[in-house]
Amino acid sequence: xxxxxxxxxxxxxxxxxxxxxxxxxxxxxxxxxxxxxxxxxxxxxxxxxxxxxxxxxxxxxxxxxxxxxxxxxxxxxxxxxxxxxxxxxxxxxxxxxxxxxxxxxxxxxxxxxxxxxxxxxxxxxxxxxxxxxxxxxxxxxxxxxxxxxxxxxxxxxxxxxxxxxxxxxxxxxxxxxxxxxxxxxxxxxxxxxxxxxxxxxxxxxxxxxxxxxxxxxxxxxxxxxxxxxxxxxxxxxxxxxxxxxxxxxxxxxxxxxxxxxxxxxxxxxxxxxxxxxxxxxxxxxxxxxxxxxxxxxxxxxxxxxxxxxxxxxxxxxxxxxxxxxxxxxxxxxxxxxxxxxxxx
Length: 344
Ligand code: 1HN
Prior knowledge:
Low-confidence stretches: none
CATH architecture: Sandwich
Order of helices and strands: HHEHEEEEEEEEEHEEHEHEEEEEEEEEH
Distance between the termini: 23 Å
Oligomer: single chain
Number of domains: 1
Bound molecules: 1-hydroxynaphthalene-2-carboxylic acid
């Protein structure tokens, strides 16, 4: 492709005239906004180690009472986007949240979608639109756009979870805001069997939670499905998607969620794709190779990989490894931007 003229190739007087009228020449920036063949991502391949986050999060618990934090979170920020912008990728926000015994984080609702993946601790819960979702290790809990949610903790030990939000995209769209509330009356305990039996309430159109019939995905059931699939299909990679059980569509509209099992000594090579990805170890350990970078991941560690990277997930241990994955595929597919390439 032709090298285009630079800003410096234009007379300063001309540039000043443009500037004064809020005009900008396209050609000096054309190759930046439209790079040849693939994007130039700001997202850097990166790992956050849980054993480095945890002591700092516990210290946050000593430094800042929950009333002064509302949500006590350390954000997993990608330096490629500028730490202060609080992005793991251009679409995905990640944070580790701490709730101490008997603490309560008041109800609010906001436009960005969130999920929680429980990392450690027992007996905390999130109430979403009156549905109480108990939190156990590995559970996925949805708090979709516009739904009231609050967190409580009846146990004795700190509880830590991973928050995943589409905040960077929603904020960029100037669509991000929150409404404060207080405490919601609990109407029922969220449970999967309500929809797992192939039974749904009739008269769909009058149900308010039509888009989100299931808010809690218990890890024990997801794990058992992965183990069963690994036995049935001994060759293929084993991965399950978190979907809306009524429609089979992605469980949220912007970020996609899945879980992958690496058998003992298995390597999975992912095809490069247009969507950036996040990996979080639920159980076990793995190596991750992202282009030329290699990282060791242990339980509760989190990694991110930019678009079109070559990713190898490698389990050299004799135990299976279970990995939670978040990616930007749903929003990219809706916008007609999603593509997958062959490995080179
Ligand atoms: C939020 O609402 C929670 O409800 C956690 O726990 C993290 C980060 C940015 C914006 C809203 C929560 C958040 C958040």
